[in-house]
């Protein structure tokens, strides 16, 4: 294909929580970090670790919230405020004593009587789930964001398993003493030592054996893979052969045929060494038919909110089959602008023809250049004439070949030479 259009693929939906990382090969070349380190970070970003943690929560419907006055005047809410919270389920009702921080958290969420809330005992986080169905008739009108839920059943205090998903690269950055977790926000992670990664791999393996965590290999998409050099290919050979689940699915895309391997004088299919190609499953792509192009253009028109006639779509599909699908999509956009200029409701055949005459495709542009190449600036002066023009001030001859003399007035008519100090 003329371009790697598969770079817009999305994360696989079949595997929930699987990370998807897109990297272009041209992004790997940096003065601040080696290419193998950049590849390693991309590979470890494509591997997720799901850590299961059991936490105690309080889940119930608010019956009453009572906030006492501060103990002394001018005291902040976190110091001098206390209160009581009454929660209930379908089976029980309990009163909780509140401190200043919990009162502040409840007031921040604007919790009132009739709300169904959930409180994390470990962190003190308050989450408002909605209003109880029993309070649905208290108001004649409610907002669009109002959500009614049923009153919880069973015990107020329950244990719930919470799954935290984090990538191996994020664990590497957090455990790197040189940078710490703040590098996650700045993005300046730098190079991470191999010993740190080895210790993390051992710890993750222990968590997996104990049942505390689960490794989820994701997808690493390498676009423009022909831009990688021989060192990157050698590193990928070893990374793809990594045993266990600490290796993601690597998808490579390229639009090159038989071309040179970067960093070597050798040529190979797609610019990839043969020993690496032997480890890959190559997916063959075929050109779109005219009918398929028409369906794609119809979807594109719906996406851009453009009304187009059937004859115009058929012409665009024919143009796309003779030139390229991308050029046909560009013509669709420009034809919509031409249609808007003449204040029509839908793109007609004349709009497409007008844009096709105004904007050239690659084939017509190349043909035009070959036909009128003598009219362009770089063809007006030949190489021999250019060399003569450069040497003319130094060979002492004018255009006629006779010696040129300059008089005192600066003219060359008298034939008397002028002395120059």
Automatic annotation (TrEMBL):
InterPro entries in alphabetical order: P-loop_NTPase, RuvB-like, RuvB-like_C, RuvBL1/2_DNA/RNA_bd_dom, TIP49_P-loop
Domain annotation RuvB-like AAA-lid: ranges: 296-361
Any single biological process term in GO: DNA repair
Cellular component aspect of the GO annotation: nucleus
Matching SUPFAM superfamilies: P-loop containing nucleoside triphosphate hydrolases
Claim: Signal is one of the keywords in the record: no
EC identifiers of the protein: 3.6.4.12
Stretches the record annotates as Disordered: 383-421
Catalyzed chemical reaction(s): ATP + H2O = ADP + phosphate + H(+)
Molecular function GO terms recorded: ATP binding; DNA helicase activity; hydrolase activity
Subcellular location: Nucleus
Domain TIP49 P-loop: 16-291
Enzyme class: hydrolase
Taxonomy, superkingdom: Eukaryota
Keywords assigned: ATP-binding, DNA damage, DNA repair, Helicase, Hydrolase, Nucleotide-binding, Nucleus, Transcription, Transcription regulation
Primary subcellular site in the record, as a coarse category: nucleus
The family this protein is said to belong to: Belongs to the RuvB family.
PANTHER family (alphabetical): RUVB-RELATED REPTIN AND PONTIN
UniProt-recorded name of the protein: RuvB-like helicase
Organism: Erythrolobus madagascarensis
